[in-house]
């Protein structure tokens, strides 16, 4: 028998109450928390194969160490989210090994292949920035005690990833030539993915259990704006073109196209003049991107190989 | 304990010892660079999430060690950038047991529990060296290696307990790679002059004995047979500490050189 | 390969108290030690220890804190 009704719990957490055990949750609270943690864990997990592509072929020992350290962090963060889910009754084994690839709940951005070192650092600069924007907000605002504690480590490490991305984006742009061109190419396909990352705009989605239960503090639009306000000035400063600009008068970044829009997966090109509905965007996410099956298999291969050996006594 | 004064730099080494100390450093550096590359292949596909994390950390440690070791070679007239980015596989002086990729988890476990430990046995023999750069740089590496050994031996025991094909796959890998590890330490009198000079505290034969003392009880305790090996050094090259000169897997070398992302080399 | 949850406790400096910093899954204490050290490497810890989660017994509350609760909940009447 839950101790509180939904309305009581919503009021309590808005007044600063921190949930510490299952008997203090309502069914809806638990459901919203499980969804949030699954997206979080899957996002961290699927960033690992995505970064691993270029990291294993990094240009030098130093870059190999830093990029492999980032992957190690991401796997650790996935582990933290899955451990928390396990305590809520969701099997970690199910999450890691039993779902169909398309059932993972990470953003579409981590269903893409990163073609080279430049794309890896752009992903660090843009996607990890999205991650920090979301998780930083959760860390400051979440009403769930175990998650708030776990995010101390996560926040520390994600900041390192972000700095890695931004430092390298600057460095590659300053060196010009092919290095700069590859950064531009990466930003061109990753920037609109970042814009989509935060989901439906507030005027289309008013109600959010995650906000009501204080599992996060900012709305989708507020989060997206925070991300844009960081990413747009960076790109302008290093001379990378994006379909957005800084609006001096408004004191914020503004996107120059009507999103969401169509995406050509094969060419990795956004068709900025072909707006689509959010339902169509969600359909694309749900179909998952080109690397989805490959990435999911790559994080599982050793487990299945060993299980196979163990079954042959 | 040697009371002889320390040797501060390569220039202070006796002329006849300088090339062999240089080769010793290169052998360790190449072995660790390649071992890191091979460990890294398991950053995604290890049998559990925590083991992926460990594999990633192990690979970074090895690369960190190799970076320190390559940098030491500057003092010997080598160009670390050239060593890192320009060499073909046949110029590598890594331990031969790491020539082949680690394509299965049992192979990873053997590399971690046995081959990595062989490198550590060599490092330990340098920790109190009269050659100051060894003394100054080995301690951190040895501290990190404690966790490599703990990870390797825990997994080795786990594979032994599991029995069946998991156990036999480890035993097969031992059969393939253990002989090369024993040969890596060289003939019994290898490094006799280096020992006399207080550079390395053991000869090849003594290093091999230390390694066997360390790994045989582990293997037997985990339910594995220690492979019987006939030592044969007639075509062994003391400079490279290898018998064949093909070098490691070409793809591993291409990664070590950073071939695919050469356009972004600017650190 | 039966796995257990191990609680990870650590402190950064000598005068610090041990803090609960997280948990790992492992099939034996040896792997738990390595996994904890490698997973929670965000600081240079002065000291880190691990203990099986079911070694913790609640004292003043019916249940231990949620992230250290026992492996198998007490059967309810």
From TrEMBL, chain A:
Top-level taxon of the source organism: Bacteria
Protein name: Phenylacetate-CoA oxygenase subunit PaaI
Record organism: Candidatus Kutchimonas denitrificans
PANTHER family in the record: 1,2-PHENYLACETYL-COA EPOXIDASE, SUBUNIT C (PTHR30458:SF0), PHENYLACETIC ACID DEGRADATION PROTEIN PAA (PTHR30458)
GO cellular component, as recorded: cytosol
Classification via Pfam families: PaaA_PaaC (PF05138)
Transmembrane segments: none
GO BP term, example: phenylacetate catabolic process
Signal peptide region: none
From TrEMBL, chain B:
Domain of life according to the entry: Bacteria
InterPro entries: Aromatic_CoA_ox/epox (IPR052703), Ferritin-like (IPR012347), Ferritin-like_SF (IPR009078), PaaA_PaaC (IPR007814)
GO CC annotation: cytosol
Pfam families: PaaA_PaaC
GO biological process, one term: phenylacetate catabolic process
PANTHER family: 1,2-PHENYLACETYL-COA EPOXIDASE, SUBUNIT C, PHENYLACETIC ACID DEGRADATION PROTEIN PAA
Protein name: Uncharacterized protein
Provenance organism: Candidatus Kutchimonas denitrificans
TrEMBL record, chain C:
InterPro entries noted in UniProt: PaaB_sf
Family matches, as Gene3D superfamilies: Phenylacetic acid degradation B
The protein's name: Phenylacetic acid degradation b
Organism: Candidatus Kutchimonas denitrificans
